[in-house]
Amino acid sequence: MKKYTLFSLVIFIALCSCEEAFIEEDLSDDMTAIIAPKDGSQIEDTSINFSWEAVDQATSYRVQIARPNFENAAQIVEDTTVTSTNFRTNLTKNTYEWRVRAQNSGSETAYVMAGFSVTEPTDFASREVLLTSPVNELATNEPEIELQWQAVPDANTYRIQLLNSSNEVMQEETTINTMITLTFPEGVTRWQVRAENATQNTLYTTRSVTVDTTSPNTPVATTPANNAILTETAVSFAWTRETVEGTTEIDSIYIFEDEALTQLVTKNQVTSPSEITLEASTTYYWFLKAFDQAKNESDASATQNFQIN
């Protein structure tokens, strides 16, 4: 029988503890539960919301929908991975089977499945346009945006509107396709789509987009002074920058150990003033840049240096 010293046992336990901290839980013995649609459901709507119970330690869920079922599938109509415990899509009148499993990077549960049928509403107006892209409340610096949505059964055209902050229609287009590229103005714009046929139309489905094409102002470094000689390793950095109208802005600091700015010590999102602890007996070179939510960025501030004795 092997014998272990007290030291080796301590090391073994420590290594196991560290390993456990980085290994995700094995989900193979767990199971999610379907909330809706339940097995045997008959749904009088083409817009279907699939939902299930969360599984602890799961990081995503794989959802598949087959027509008419998985054993004799004529078509896999959906195969997607989501991080939430629900998924929504449009389906035409037919018989379906759906299944879902929980998963993380190293394991997954078994699938749970249920069969259901879809009966299209007799009233076309009660159907719904499901918007797919871009995400709601997108912030972007690109004015040209491709809008996408799912097809609505029996629709022969789609009407798209852009609305300003007063809900006034700024632009209106129609298309037979399920996508269109439009140029959005600066600022916040609501966009909405409805389906139409010869006699009826659905309600509009709406999302918003913020277009911001203006770069933030360049930060101006104030502390520590250029060529400063410091005695403390906890360094207080300060700067000024006037914000511009648009999306949320942030500042980033870049600190290097060489004048050529190749040996990066740290890069952090910061607010003025900020304290950063560095090593003594070193000369540092630093600058700042500003970014915004729409992915605009400022020029870099002037590079300054200081020495810590």
Main beta-sheet annotation: 5 strands, mixed
What is the overall number of helices? 1
Roughly how many Å is the radius of gyration? 28 Å
How many beta strands in the DSSP annotation? 24
H/E element order: HEEEEEEEEEEEEEEEEEEEEEEEE
Quaternary structure: single chain
Protein architecture, described:
With 309 residues, this protein is mainly β. It has one helix and 24 strands. The strands form six sheets. The protein has a five-stranded mixed sheet, with no helix packed on it. It has a five-stranded mixed sheet with strand order 10-16-15-12-13, with no helix packed on it. The chain has a five-stranded mixed sheet with strand order 18-24-23-20-21, with no helix packed on it. The N and C termini lie far apart (58 Å). The model is unreliable at 1-22 (pLDDT under 50). Helix content is 6%, strand content 48%. The protein has three domains: 34-118, Immunoglobulin-like; 124-211, Immunoglobulins (Immunoglobulin-like, Sandwich), CATH 2.60.40.10; 220-308, Immunoglobulins (Immunoglobulin-like, Sandwich), CATH 2.60.40.
Précis, in short:
By secondary structure, the protein is mainly beta. The protein is built from 1 helix and 24 strands. It has one helix at 6-22, and strands at 34-36, 41-43, 47-52, 60-67, 75-82, 86-90, 94-103, 112-118, 131-133, 138-140, 144-149, 157-163, 169-175, 179-183, 187-196, 205-211, 220-223, 228-230, 234-240, 249-256, 264-270, 274-277, 282-292, 304-308.
